[in-house]
């Protein structure tokens, strides 16, 4: 731990890593952070933290940070340091040139779930008002976009239903496709406390995660589902509930659409959805499915927590809807201790979606084709907005290769390392004429950029993040921006250079605009956040101090809607050529593509991505523990070091994606969710062979 002496003052702010959104007290000596102390009054963490938030802030002052704007005409040219004015003027001129030569829709922007709500708001506003297109998307496209779609269809709102505190009132917990011990550690410790008090646990995961069996905790059921068959497994759970008389008939009659419920009940009751019929597909013994279904439906308050192991599939949206169906059928929505709870990976995934970063939705999840809503924005912003949805990120890549998309403003996302099928992404970026990257470091995407605008870390900015429980918390500037400008000021300058003036003196004024134009944020102000510590949206006239639990008396959409969620096999099935299924996850000490955690030298970090391989599969291939192995898929090939473990089942391999040199996304394919294009990172058919050291 870096200890620089006694603190002189402290500033309360919010962790910039995962979607738990822990509050921290940054203890300062002048412009230097002495230590980060978990804030005891933080409503998401109540004085707790994990190793990342507590210790991994050193990247903010890392020597590799780029602090000067840079431009270059061709991506093979060396970078040239220039003034802010020159860089922004060059970017604006290039975007306008492209639009004149190739049309208004030849440019677009990507917002970041790492940035604040205010910064995200400005980027989508710039794209819509200054570029005049709806080609704006967010990195949430590649993680929780199915959550937004699935929960909106069924419950009426694209967000989790509870607070983290709610878990202390639960009796039965389903954790599905998530590994909270590594991904959401502070929530995991609260969950474990409840489990030690006697709550029951069902884990649905292809891998034996720590929660399945750890000191003092043992899951009642581990449904070790085969990757790609989540929807089939949920259908079999629903079959048991529907055919064994376990439905909460009173709740369903009072709260849900009768027609959709009847159709759903008829569907899940079909013999083909029984656990016995599905066993062949899911690999999960029917008796375990029956036991787990009975436990969830009859064990008291039942809550479901899920992560990217649910969403990052070709049926990601279907699976989210199947989860909501289960919760409604058993009456497990609308009170303490129950609910549907997406565990968001990044600090502001929820916020970046709330802020209208989607090509089809204005802030607050309102469709761009809605004339009345669009009219409100047009009057406030003084522009005409396009009524047609724009391009999603994968569509931008395709359009670039087709020659119709030429310019991209990318704030705070390393799309080359984080998006699937790296070769395809790289080829798309290489086909563009002006890429503006705004980031802390020269990341993999910057290799294809023409303009680099230095970004600022969370320690250098004011604003808000919204965590996985819809909790809006203040981010406060603890030091002056090392690059001379906060990220929001850069977007404002770019918009002004494009000829669409933006005038804000402080991010608080951006929040005032958000509140003015977004009904779920109507009651949010910085003053109120300072006074109350945080606010969970919806926060408006009806709920001036926010809404901890949603859907209490009725669903946001009125009656809850059951959706038919038929299992459709993914194309990523094991074949003779690619007989194993690769799935991915995280480790505790690293964060996503590792841009920050790999640059934090003050803790001993795990140093490489490993391939977990079952001993039986290893023996078949002559692989020993520690050997280097080639991993081939239909997209590409990478090399990793093997570790042999029975945490994975035979036929399944697993790795993490924190290090660019291991390149997990070189092998992931462009298979994606049917509704949202969220990539199918969690299932890739691969072959593994022993190779000599790379
Ligand atoms: Fe930060 Fe998440 Fe760790 Fe909390 S649990 S300190 S938000 S990384």
Task: Please characterize this protein's 3D structure.
The chain is 31% helix and 18% strand. The protein is globular, with a radius of gyration of 24 Å. The longest helix has 19 residues, at 84-102. The protein has 23 helices and 28 strands. The strands form 7 sheets. A 7-stranded mixed β-sheet has the order 5-4-19-18-17-6-7, with helices on one face. A 6-stranded mixed β-sheet has the order 24-26-25-28-23-27. Strand 6 (107-111), helix 3 and strand 7 (136-138) form a beta-alpha-beta unit. Helix 3 (117-131) crosses helix 20, helix 7 (230-243) packs antiparallel against helix 10 and helix 16 (393-402) packs across helix 18 (422-430). With 694 residues, the protein is an alpha/beta fold. The two termini are 34 Å apart. The structure holds iron/sulfur cluster.
Rough outline: globular
Bound chemical compounds? iron/sulfur cluster
Distance from N terminus to C terminus (CA atoms, Å) equals 34 Å
CATH top level label of the largest domain = Alpha Beta
Helix amount, in percent?
A: 25-40%
Query: Please, how many helices?
Result: 23
Total of domains:
3
For the sheet with most strands, the description reads: 7 strands, mixed
CA-atom Rg in angstroms: 24 Å
Low-confidence stretches: none
The amount of beta strand, in percent, is 15-25%
Q: What is the CATH architecture term of the largest domain?
A: 3-Layer(aba) Sandwich
Q: How do the strands line up in the largest sheet?
A: 5-4-19-18-17-6-7
Helix/strand-derived category reads: alpha/beta
Summarize the structure.
The protein has 694 residues and is α/β, with parallel strands linked by helices. It is built from 23 helices and 28 strands. It has a seven-stranded mixed sheet, covered by helices on one side. The protein has a six-stranded mixed sheet with strand order 24-26-25-28-23-27. The chain has a five-stranded parallel sheet with strand order 12-9-8-13-14.
């Amino acid at each position: 731990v870096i200890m620089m002496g006694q603190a002189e003052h402290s500033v309360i702010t919010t962790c910039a890593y995962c979607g738990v959104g822990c509050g921290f007290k940054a203890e300062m000596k002048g412009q230097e952070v002495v230590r980060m102390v978990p804030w005891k009054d933080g409503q998401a963490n109540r004085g707790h933290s994990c190793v990342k938030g507590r210790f991994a802030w050193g990247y903010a002052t890392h020597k590799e940070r780029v602090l000067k704007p840079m431009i270059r005409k061709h991506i093979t040219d060396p970078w040239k340091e220039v003034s802010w004015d020159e860089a922004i003027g060059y970017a604006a001129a290039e975007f306008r040139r492209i639009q004149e030569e190739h049309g208004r829709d030849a440019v677009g922007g990507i917002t970041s779930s790492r940035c604040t709500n205010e910064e995200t708001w400005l980027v989508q506003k710039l794209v819509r008002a200054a570029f005049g297109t709806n080609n704006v998307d967010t990195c949430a496209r590649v993680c929780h976009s199915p959550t937004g779609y699935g929960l909106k269809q069924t419950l009426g709102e694209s967000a989790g239903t509870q607070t983290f505190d709610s878990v202390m009132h639960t009796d039965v917990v389903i954790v599905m496709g998530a590994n909270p011990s590594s991904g959401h550690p502070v929530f995991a410790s609260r969950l474990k406390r409840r489990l030690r008090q006697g709550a029951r646990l069902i884990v649905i995961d292809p891998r034996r995660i720590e929660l399945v069996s750890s000191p003092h905790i043992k899951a009642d059921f581990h449904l070790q589902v085969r990757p790609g068959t989540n929807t089939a497994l949920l259908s079999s759970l629903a079959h048991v509930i529907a055919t064994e008389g376990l439905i909460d008939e009173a709740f369903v009659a009072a709260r849900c659409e009768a027609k959709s419920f009847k159709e759903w009940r008829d569907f899940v009751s079909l013999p083909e959805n029984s656990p016995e019929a599905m066993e062949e597909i899911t690999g999960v013994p029917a008796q375990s499915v029956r036991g787990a279904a009975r436990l969830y439906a009859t064990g008291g308050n039942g809550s479901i927590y899920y992560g990217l192991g649910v969403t990052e599939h070709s049926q990601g949206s279907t699976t989210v809807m199947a989860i909501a169906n289960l919760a409604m059928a058993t009456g497990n929505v609308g009170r303490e201790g129950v609910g549907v709870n997406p565990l968001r990976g990044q600090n502001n995934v929820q916020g970046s979606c709330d802020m209208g970063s989607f090509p089809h939705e204005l802030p607050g999840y309102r469709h761009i084709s809605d004339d009345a809503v669009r009219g409100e924005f047009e009057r406030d912003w003084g522009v005409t907005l396009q009524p047609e949805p724009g391009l999603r990120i994968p569509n931008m890549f395709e359009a670039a290769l087709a020659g119709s998309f030429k310019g991209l403003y990318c704030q705070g996302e390393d799309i080359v390392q984080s998006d699937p099928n790296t070769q395809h992404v790289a080829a798309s970026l290489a086909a563009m004429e002006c890429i503006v990257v705004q980031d802390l470091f020269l990341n993999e995407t910057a290799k294809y950029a023409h303009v680099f605008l230095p970004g600022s870390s969370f320690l250098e900015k004011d604003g808000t993040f919204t965590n996985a429980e819809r909790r809006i918390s203040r981010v406060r500037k603890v030091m002056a921006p090392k690059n001379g400008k906060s990220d929001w000021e850069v977007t404002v300058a770019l918009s002004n250079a494009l000829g669409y003036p933006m005038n804000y003196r402080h991010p608080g004024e951006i929040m005032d605009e958000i509140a003015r134009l977004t009904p779920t944020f109507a009651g949010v102000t910085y003053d109120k956040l300072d006074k109350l510590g945080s606010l969970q949206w919806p926060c408006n006239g009806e709920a001036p101090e926010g809404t901890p639990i949603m859907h209490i008396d009725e669903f946001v959409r009125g009656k809850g809607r059951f959706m038919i969620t038929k299992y459709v096999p993914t194309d990523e099935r094991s074949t003779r050529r690619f007989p194993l299924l690769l799935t991915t996850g995280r480790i505790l000490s690293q964060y996503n593509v590792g841009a920050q955690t790999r640059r934090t030298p003050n803790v001993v970090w795990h140093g490489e991505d490993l391939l977990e391989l079952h001993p039986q599969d290893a023996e078949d291939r002559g692989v020993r523990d520690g050997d280097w192995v080639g991993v081939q898929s239909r997209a590409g090939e990478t090399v990793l070091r093997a570790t042999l473990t029975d945490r994975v089942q035979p036929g399944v391999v697993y790795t993490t994606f924190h290090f660019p040199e291991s390149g997990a996304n070189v092998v992931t394919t462009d298979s994606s969710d049917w509704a949202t294009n969220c990539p199918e990172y969690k299932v890739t058919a691969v072959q593994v062979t022993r190779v000599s050291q790379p």
